[in-house]
Protein 1
Amino acid sequence: MKKNIWINIGFQVGALVLALLITTLILIAAGAPPLKAYGSILSGAFGSKNNLVAVLITWSPLLLTTAGVLITFSAGLWNIGVEGQMVLGAIFATWMLRLLQDTSMPPVLIIILGILFGMIGGALWAALAGALKTFGGVNEIFGGLGLNFVATALTIYLVFGPWKRPGVGSMSGTQPFDEKLWLPTWSNTGLSFWALGISIAVVVIVYLLLRGTYFGLRLKAVGRNMKAAFLLGVPTWQYSMFSFLLCGAFAGLAGAIQVTAVYHRLLPNISNGYGFLGLLVAMLINYQAIWVLPIAFFFAALNVGSVQLQIVYKMDSSFAGVLQDLLVLLVLLGQGVRERLMKKA
Amino acid sequence: MNVELRHIQKHFGKVHANNDIVLNIPAGTIQGILGENGAGKSTLMKVLSGFIQADSGEILLDGKPVIIHSPADAIKHGIGMLHQDPLDFPPMRLLDNFLLGRSGGLFPDRKAVARDIHDLAVQFDFSLDPEAYVDSLTVGERQQLEILRLLWLGARVLILDEPTTGISASQKDKLFETLHKLAKQGITIIFVSHKLEDVEVLCHKVAVLMGGKLVGEAAAPFNAKKLVEMMFGKEISLGARHPLKPGAKVLELRGLSVEDVRLRLTDINLDVHAGEVIGLAGMEGSGQGPFVRACSGMLRPVNGRVLISGHDLTGKSYHTFKQSGVSFLPASRMEEGLVPGLTLTEHFVLAEETQGLFVDRDKGNKLAEQRIASFNIRGTPASTVESLSGGNQQRALLALLRTPLSLILLEHPTRGLDIESTIYICSKLKERCQQGTSILFVSSDLEEILQYSDRVLVFFSGKVTPPLDAASLTTEKLGELIGGIGWTKLNSGKSA
């Protein structure tokens, strides 16, 4: 058993090295000195207080989406729609804030209601994908993908239509909310310890849920063999649906946090790909909830750090995505190769 | 072709699946390979047919050492394997199935191949139409097709893995006749089975495997008792039937009608008493499947009522039936019964009543250890179910049943199991009966039905007999009913 763990770690490290090697080649081809480029990613992520704060701001929604998709993955579902669920969370939170901003209600209550409503929005959007899957026989990947497009279109419609700024709508989003409706942040940076604390708590809850509860065990059974789970007495479609609802609620929470803590308005690209990134993190950690915190942090740092590449070398900041995707791909490849070798041995 | 296996060794992790196996099979011999599940039969045949490579050892064909890398390689050397589940392409024509296995030009000569098929079929008195689709054939006919295809590809050695499972008695006779014919032509037949009676009538000689080792060989005529001893290292006898003391009514069917896509069963009336065993006989797909599913709430009846312990549960869900003490064990263990990737402990925890929010791991493991011991499962609490052999999976499935239960419905509880596992499972079920649980089981094994049932229902193309007293039946009579003969005499009484 012990030997297996070391072989496992060997393959993971190998995948990391290979991913770095390939990205180095890409950097060279793009005309950037690789070592300096990596250095600038590092300093872009950790070089200053502001940069580190930016990493923590990114970390929070990523934790939530990853925790969410861990639940749906457990139920054997590919919830690609997590991106749209996050968008709907942002839309619903904005909606609630807009409705209540001119009332005399205490701002704290408005923020809480906004966040709760965001979670409901995400859950509803997920329920739609779940219902399509459970009752309509539409694969959740197609349903989710379609709903993602609808969510994006809905945001743009709102930003340029009913919710547009006084005068003319713009890509910079809706009119920012009054400062009293902002989630308290650390010295006006957009970093909310409330948001971060809740996100970490959600990860811990999901970890406990999947690891030691009847709920987690049943979810796993449903994910691996629905028919057998049914015969063993698990209400199967209800569990599938519930996993969608939970994941959607967490994604919606991520979207609501983007609105209440970071941007204070609805933006066309408010989800920023964090839903998809959450799927990647979940795959990279092989669906083991215990690794969510560090790996999501690493991905957040890559995302923030590579912005520096754009400034220094005029490279597109999507470079972080290249490195992240390569890493996931190679780790998955490594697992496949290892399994093949183990079978032979 | 002469086949010689020399010192074949094969390990799978810690399991020594083949341990120094030496076997000579002269051309024209029908060689039986006997052994219980997990004895190493399949491994040895996979080595010979190129699916896996031995760790060490040699294969000699007509005295020449060969190395077989793949099944395609095996057929080039003249070794063809007939699998337990036919490896053909159901939605395609017979002719296309033939063409697929052969390398050739861009445009195959369909006419010539059709003629070849025809000639071969005539030679063995098979009636196969080259232009028919494979999915229109019975399992027996698909077997015939596969034999012809292998011969056509030039097989001089035929390996048959459990070929008598799932085919009718007449098809079995035909198969044996064909094999005898082939052997006379000098083709070597290797017949893998755990069915003693088949080996007895067919084979010229037999090799017995146990725990990966070749433990004995014998030539015809065989001493069955001795073969059993070799297979299991001990003598085994079937248990005797216990006279029934009928108790309260557990299951009542009133004018029940059920249907699935293919057929409809109408107006079934049946009372099952506590502790009673009802055998459901019939050709596969004659309606037993929908019937047991309707009795367990998995299929909503079209008409009529289902009562469990006096309560009308018609139209209620399986989970409601389950709460009333009904359990259903499906035929396909891994597809419908067990959850691959979960351990035995996790299965037992899932099957039991939920207690609180968190799973008590220690308690779960203790429960698993206890069940593993009492059901004699070869595995540990942390074993995943897919790592168990078929017999042990079936034991695990039985071990998952809660106590007490009022009614257990089983589909093919002993299919694919060796004699020892079969007897064990039947004895476990009998224990349940003595505790007052009623059992309905589907089986295609007539002797098993007569051996264990109190009463029998026979299914034939949408019709069901009234319950027949098992003691008054014989295998011949039962076989006739299954084939649709003698039904007119039965129409005197419909319910019991």
Protein 2
Amino acid sequence: MSAVVAGLGVAALACVPLLLGDYGLSLAINIVSYTVLATAWSLFSGPTRYVSLATVAFFGIGAYTTAVFAETLAWPLVLLIAAAISISVAGIVGLSTLRLSGVYFVIFTLGLAELVRQLVTWYEVNKTRTLGRYVFTDITAAQIYWQLLALAVLVFAVGFLIGRSRLGLALRAIGDDETVARHSGIDATRAKVALFVLSTVFMTLTGAIMAPRWTYIDPAIAFNPVISFTVLIMALLGGVHRLYGPVMGVVPLALLFEFLLARFPNHFSIMVGVVFILVVYAIPRGIVGLVERTVRWPA
Amino acid sequence: MAGVNGLLEVEGLTRRFGGLVAVDGLSFSVASSEIVGLLGPNGSGKTTVLNLLSGALRPDLGSIVLRGHAISGQPPHRIAQLGVARTFQIVRPLASFTCRDNVLTGLAFGKSRSWGAAARADADALLDRVGLGRAREALPGELTYIDQKRLELARALALRPDLLLLDEWLAGLNPTELEDGIALIQSLRGQGITILLVEHVMDAIRSLCDRCLVMNTGRLIASGLPGDVLADPEVVRAYLGDDDA
């Protein structure tokens, strides 16, 4: 029954490009891409409570993979390469850093994104001798939207399956008390690395799919740290304890940011900062948490 | 005592923290289905021994052999899967999990690796065993202290352990609860579970333990029947000082 409803919902969403104009479609692309990013982010960070600011590192890796290979290789191959790069980077990073906890992990991931950006910048300046790249493909906006929608369906399906699996239980146990989890037979390192890798694959693919939107990219665009913070705050606003939580934060914030950007282009950063603070202070458990509490104890 | 049915063999176990030798060349063995008390004054190294046995700490020297498998230096999750379960001195339930999910965690990743409806039935049976049948859906925070201890015991039992390590599991209970707690541990004996317990409650030691090991400053100073060991002058001296020996 719920599968039928979900199927109809996806079918309806798939019709969006046929109904909306260019502006509407670009807004829809924005919302769906952040939905994938925020849901993927909370796949890992929700249960384990490891706050990652490395989202944009993987998003940018995906975007650059497209920029480098899209002209010469078949599109599915480009996506495959992006996924492979993300798996190896995330695997190495995961194995070497997931022993860190709390604020050390947060700082590391922020640093990682910056490190990747600097490496790409260095390579472009010294090897290719040009900072920017043009992304020429014949992929239309509607096709980007459909790919992102498919990716969103996939991330929800994966999240749903993990939530009902041993791995999901292991991650929640790790989030509660890692020592107890380890003494209960859980290979905490393996579980964390597996989920970290999985969530970054979705982020990388989002970047790869989104890259043709820009036609021109440079490291400052592809590795813009604001993306990491935006994903974080969207996920927190929606609530990371439920699979459908992050999307509840994505929709209102994407619309709000769109509005702010159009009306107050010069004060945008200040207003985003205020929104961040409000979300963290006023709705610490997210919209989903707020709703669940209200339903449980009606006023 | 080692013999053919020696479940646990510890040889020359040593662990230092900087200059302090917390466990100093400790050797002992535990036979299958025994209940052994590990005693000693505060700071004598008992909890460190449990941490070494459960893999929370790595030994600097020495070997720990469980049913013929060397487990020393292995990570805690491997040791748990091989059949060693523990409780913590200060209870550590998984706070956001219901009682049933706490127990399911042990079932899913311990020896049985059970999952699904069968695991849920096992979890409920274990909760019944420890007397928490009425609180399956409750969160640990809603339980009394003894019930949290029961929950932790159920989670440890869910690993289907051969060796159960209890770190002052009976501490902090009132006399009625203590009686219940002792009866509960006593009931595990029939299940073929071997128990090594760190304890200060003398009543419990006398009524539960087949044998006691007494540590002081990281070394074994006595071992034997509870009554004999507690009367040993060196043990009395370790606890109370020279004047009372």
